Amino acid sequence: MRNILLVEPDYRSKFPPLGLLKIAAYHKERRDSVTFVRGRDEAIRSLHWHRIYIASLFTWELPRTVQTIKYYASSVDSTDQVIVGGVGATLLPDYIRNNASCVVIEGPLDKRGLLGPDSRPIAEMIPDYSILDTIQYDYKPRDAYFVRITKGCIRSCKFCAVPKLEKKFGRLTKVDEQIGSVKRKYGERQNLIVLDNNILGIDGIENEIAEIRRMGFERGAKRNGRKRYVDFNQGLDARLISENPELARHLSTICLSPVRLAFDFTTAKMEKAYRHSIELLAGQGFGEFTNYMLFNFDDSPRDLYHRLLVNTELNEKLGIRITGFPMRFIPMTDVKRDYVSDKWRWRYLRGIQCVLLATHGLVSPNPDFIRAAFGATYEEFLEILAMPDRYIIYRKEYKNNGASEWRKKYRRLTEPSQEEFLELLAELNKDRNRRETIDGLRKFRSLLEHYYPNGETLRAEIGQEKEGNQRIT
Ligand code: B12
Ligand code: SF4
To answer: CA dist 101 to 48, 51, 65, 371, Å?
Structure first.
């Protein structure tokens, strides 16, 4: 029996680290003793481990992942026994190799022999949910089956990591087998979270939907008096629904909630397919949508504003509720979260974050909210995003107390001066000697006073990082 430690670095993680849960199942099957921990733990580090597995997820959390690897390095006989894998490690393996001593396993654990000479493919194992009960951290949702029915994707969008992570589109273990095994081993769960990248791309999807229905997730399904839901968490491909209207009908036979579509960019073709698929789904009785909207890739602020208006229009026209979920693009090669694309400005990205602060990164489906929060015109939208953080966040409080004075001054700037000013704000944000820099400035001084009163940064304006609306520093 060997002592195995599984570590998830203490980055914010919503769902359980399924890779580690599967590795736990594998080692328990071999009768090893398995311990799971989040982050750095002094008592755990002081023990001796035969092997330590460290997960990775987002590339911008790799610096923290490397710190965690180094932290536990002394708890094994040789750093050959520190095994690192997962999404981040697959996207940027050399970042880890160059900064820490460990073994990096790239890609899915879907072949024999990856964890030892005789190890079986880990990807097909049933996650060991029981290790989650040994820690305090609250993964959400707790009471759900997490499944993947397919891997990869039929498309290869330039902004997406999936084509790099999972090169071939294909099926995994059947959904009823996955649900059945978890049910037998760890008990029944209330809801079903499907993590597939593009589930509708699979041939014969209606059969998969029928299986989901058969497993107790039919439309209106309840368990112990509580409604159940199926969440295709990574979104459904609107283009496929628009091309095959029957899909909307199949989806309406299960307790899908909310419907998540992707509205990642606006070409006339994409917009047409998006509108059409929503009409089809609304026609099948779906009223709640949470739709992903990528921005800061090759779109512009005008493009995002347009998509917000499309949602507003559909909400009003069809009497449905589309909650927008803007997702700021971060390149797959970035270990920081400060990327600003050509068509965006740092201040505008920060402005979006401030607008969404109160709503956990979501855009309310209420048309009046959208117009009030983001502006009734595109010009108003840009002006709101340019405002100092607190004028955006506490709009009412500052309306006649700073914001109107700011607006007057800002509107006096010509367009090129506004550009120059926005550029200056971006530079000041990164400036370690900000106060001195501001002291030395003559231009824009009175406007800057609204952002940095007396040259000071007002802290605690942007509080907790919200899901889907990651902090831009
Ligand atoms: C589920 C998911 C989420 C969940 C949360 C995940 C979590 N655990 O908290 C939610 C919906 C919250 C989410 C949010 C976001 N996500 Co996301 N998400 C995913 C998704 C679909 C699956 C990740 C996962 O949990 N997989 C489960 C495990 C079992 O499968 P796996 O990762 O394939 O693991 C295999 C191997 O990697 C390996 N393995 C896994 N762990 C380990 C550990 C060890 C030690 C070893 C050896 C091997 C190993 O073995 C596994 C079995 O084969 C991926 C896409 C993808 N297909 O991977 C995107 C992905 C990770 N997300 C991404 C992004 C961009 C986001 C958002 C930033 C979107 C946004 N702009 O708002 C937010 C970030 C929120 C935040 N915290 O800041 C990007 C990351 C790109 C990057 N630069 O890192 C990805 C790759 C999607 C994409 N299309 O590009 N996400
Ligand atoms: S359709 Fe979705 S999962 Fe597939 S490549 Fe495009 S963004 Fe990625």
So the answer is: 18, 14, 12, 52
